[in-house]
Amino acid sequence: MRFAAPWRTHPIAEEVLPAMQSTISGILHKPGDPHFLNPALMAPNAFEIDIPHDLIAELAPLTAETQGMRENRAQYRLSNGVSLFNERPLAWQSDICWLSHADEEAFHWFDAIYHRLGLGPLVAPFVPHDREIRLYAGFLVTRSHCTGLNMHCDWSTDDNLAFTLMAPLTVAGERLGMTYRTIRDEERELSYKLGRGLVFGTKFVHSTAIGQLDERAAFLCLNFGTDRMEHWDSIGSTTARQCNVLRQPDGTFTTQAQWRARYGDRKAY
Fold first, then answer.
1. Does residue 245 have a pLDDT over 60?
2. By three-state DSSP, how is residue 232 classified?
3. Which ranges of 174-255 does DSSP label H, i.e. alpha helix?
4. Which of 96, 121, 174, 266 could be bridged to 237 by S-S, CB 3.0 to 4.6 A?
5. Which among 143, 141, 75, 137 is positioned nearest to 110, based on CA atoms?
6. Cα(206)–Cα(202) distance, rounded to whole angstroms?
7. Which segments of 46-159 does DSSP mark as H helices, in order?
């Protein structure tokens, strides 16, 4: 499937020179606009952040434990007691595993990591919200190969209501990166770097890059955004399909089955 370049006719793409620098380093943002541009990537609504090396070191032994967690919809437990649920999108041309919190206690472990990274205040200027930017779901993602591109946007919203963080936790993650589409509708390759994470919102078209590793790469992935429930049907069409227990914008918890019963079996991509 081909996607139209989402920024080709957007005012911010036509007015880069008068755009003002945001508090996020390296992006261009026109005040009052719900979108922004990363000129280094030539991509919309995406920026990179530092991931503390002490956090990566703390997660390293737990990351190693995820290597054998590959059974679809199985539940596992890390040595620190955190329970994980594995969701594998079997239609993808990849062996990717989405290992998310299997219960509320495990969610709070991911939530502590989210607050430690300070992600909420970074995206707050772009996300309409009332009190705070909430974490919806956290994952330890593993994969070793991708044989075909699955170009998609994580968020099927017009404005930046939610964001994704993808950050490698192993050196192998540097060798299986991302293919994404620029505002010129060109495909580019982005290589992950240990100690750096990519944060992206709406209209950022991407896929796991095609490649093969000798071992499974591991990543930290976080989904977070608005605390307004009126947007949950569109936001949940992504994140509710990748985990079994998740937090809603209003702070309450729900399950994948409960979300589908309320909003239907919607697909974001």
1. yes
2. helix
3. 232-239
4. 266
5. 137
6. 11
7. 53-65, 104-117, 119-123
Structure tokens, 149: 């591109």
* The two structure tokens encoding residue 195: 């100690």
Spatial contact of 154 and 166, defined as CB atoms under 8 Å apart? no
User: Which value, to the nearest 10 degrees, does the dihedral of the CA atoms of residues 198, 126, 249, 162 take?
Assistant: -40
Q: What is the pTM of this model?
A: 0.90
Q: What angle do CA 231, 22, 233 make, to 5 degrees?
A: 10
Contact between residue 208 and residue 176 where contact means Cβ atoms under 8 Å apart: yes
Query: 118: Cβ–Cβ under 8 A, 6 or more apart, which residues?
Result: none
CA distances from 190 to 23, 179, 180, 197, 206 (A): 23, 6, 7, 11, 10
CA distance 210 to 93: 9
What whole-number distance in Å separates Cα of residue 256 and Cα of residue 192?
30
Question: How far, in Å, CA of 259 to CA of 262, rounded?
Answer: 5
Specify the pairing of strand 211-225 against strand 162-168.
Answer: antiparallel
pLDDT interval class at 13 (50, 70, 90): very low
Q: How many CB atoms lie within 10 A of CB 215?
A: 12
252 Cβ partners below 8 Å, 6+ apart? none
Backbone phi, psi, residue 215, to 5°: -140, 165
CB 41 within 8 A of CB 180: yes
Which residue is associated with the tokens 């499937």?
Answer: 1
Rounded CA-CA distance 43/15 in Å is 15
pLDDT bucket at 21, cuts 50 / 70 / 90: very low
- Residue showing tokens 């503390």: 52
